[in-house]
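>> Question from a student workshop board

For tomorrow's exercise we were told to take the sequence and the ligand below, predict the bound structure, and bring the output to class. My setup keeps failing. Could a helper post the expected result so I can at least see what it should look like? The ligand is iron/sulfur cluster.
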Amino acid sequence: MGREQWKAALRHPVGAVAAALLVALALLAVVAPMLWGDAAEETDPAALSQGSTSEHLLGTDALGRDILLRVLVATRYSLGLALLATAICVVIGVLLGVLPAVLGRRAGRLVTAAVNLAVAFPGLLLALFFAVIFGVGARGAVLAIGLAGAPSFARLVQTNVAAVAGRDYVAAARVAGVGRFRLIARHLLPNIGEPLVVNATVLAGGALLAFAGLSFLGLGVQPPAYDWGRLLGEGLDRIYINPAAALAPGVAVVVAGLAFTLLGESIAQVVGVRAVRRRRVPAAEPAPLVAAEPAAAAVLAADDLRVGFPAPGGGWTHPVDGVGLTVRRGETVGIVGESGSGKSLTALAVAQLVPDAAQVTAGRLEVAGVAPLGRADAEVRELLGTKVAMVFQDPMTSFNPSMRVGRQLAEVTRVHERQGKRAALARAVDRLRTVRVPAPERRAHQYPHEFSGGMRQRAMIAMGLMSTPELIIADEPTTALDVTVQRQVLRLLKDVQAETGAAVVLISHDIAVVAQLCERVVVMYAGRVVEELPVDRLGAAAHPYTRALLASVPDLATDRDRPLATIPGRPPDPSDRPEGCAFAPRCEFADDACRMRPSLSAVAADQRAACWHPRTRPLDLTLDAVTGGQA
Ligand code: SF4
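>> Workshop helper replied:
Here is what the output should look like for this input. Compare the format with yours to find the bug.
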């Protein structure tokens, strides 16, 4: 964080109050024991249990000791113990919170279940339980309060990690082969730091209160030591004689608790603002952008690929249900279909990015010469990390917001090629230049939010090019972009494909977008491939679903006064698909034969369709009409 951000935070009233309270408390904690430590211990037999006097502003205790001085001196012990308990709570909470992301699925579930069980117990009950176990005294109380707060902090970490783990930039890091520990340290924890810091400071306030409670009950700090809780307990005995004796430590606890809470708020604001520092780009020689050797072999070969999820009532549902897909080296293939057709999940299964709960099976799955199924995660990352690149739909979520773009790109080569920082950053700048990001040296040192949407998508493609990918999977890469930027990104993908020789799989719900870039189109419906054909044969599409998708593409001749053609009905729920052809409820040609599931069969030399009644009459459209002249 830069000086300007700190200044901005302190200019805010909340930040200013928090800073003032914190500085005052810190000063007190340091100087009070030095200045008044001895005076606070001095007994005065002539002034036992006095009320407020000019000599003792808040009165004296039963031994004639000055209550105000004792409250001030107790600041160090009270804050120190509360911070120590908070540190224990945060460290154990973070460890328990990230464990499920580090361990395998079963062990992770066990940890999660244990944390959930511990959270079910009231915190105070847990603290008393641990206090009894660890023994009466300050040390026992610190351990008790720290351990009692750890499960709820661990739950918070788990929830936040789970929320961030689904982001595209985490998936991108996983595709790039970033290991689990590095993933947690670089991509997960920094992006959940804000809620953790806020909660840790709130926790410190809670720990302060809990300590006061335990000391008040006689389980915490023991005489002759004293903290605010002990002073509160002693003052309460004489509250009718001298109310200030109980109120003063009580007010101290409340003010300190408030200081921690306000501090949490102001820190949250400060860490939300990122500084933009510029550094000189090292002038290292960038590695050449190596073109993949063209070869006849397929870079992706999948037979009977299935992705299943546990069904609520038992058993499995399969959103991807027996997909067969082959992509040759250097080929550009588009996968098209409505939402829920299984196209994105198919791509995630290929890149080994499906959620933990999913089960992927296949008769055969080979990606860039690697059969990933049945292998350990680390092995797959090592094998595929440099061979497969992913470009995701939302350029905003595709990057880790807490890391500079250049550093994120550089991470790919640092992990896989053990390259030094300078060389990796130089390559990142070179790749940004390749994808036509202007002023790449400067841009490499900016954060993702400083890039426009189109530029972020270019940078995402540049990340894929940091190694020498054999397969680039672009999942709806242009959906979030306007038409002009969409065309630029598609053109860039085309150029990158031509330059590197990598195969490209473009996933889109828009058949016009696919037709602009691809040589071959694979149409998916209800988790299966229903038609496969070259783009230049789209006019001869045989499957009623493909023809319906094409009919819904507007062209220049479309009457704008009439509503656009749509496909009636909705795709079936994966858990409730019809027995035969899944498209039957929406198909005007359905008959009794369609009660049986059709398999993918040749309808022309280079075209296959899964339909009992493939259409043979050519459609009245040209490729130019589908693509708007952008093919
Ligand atoms: S198999 Fe029957 S229901 Fe399915 S698309 Fe073909 S004609 Fe329509």
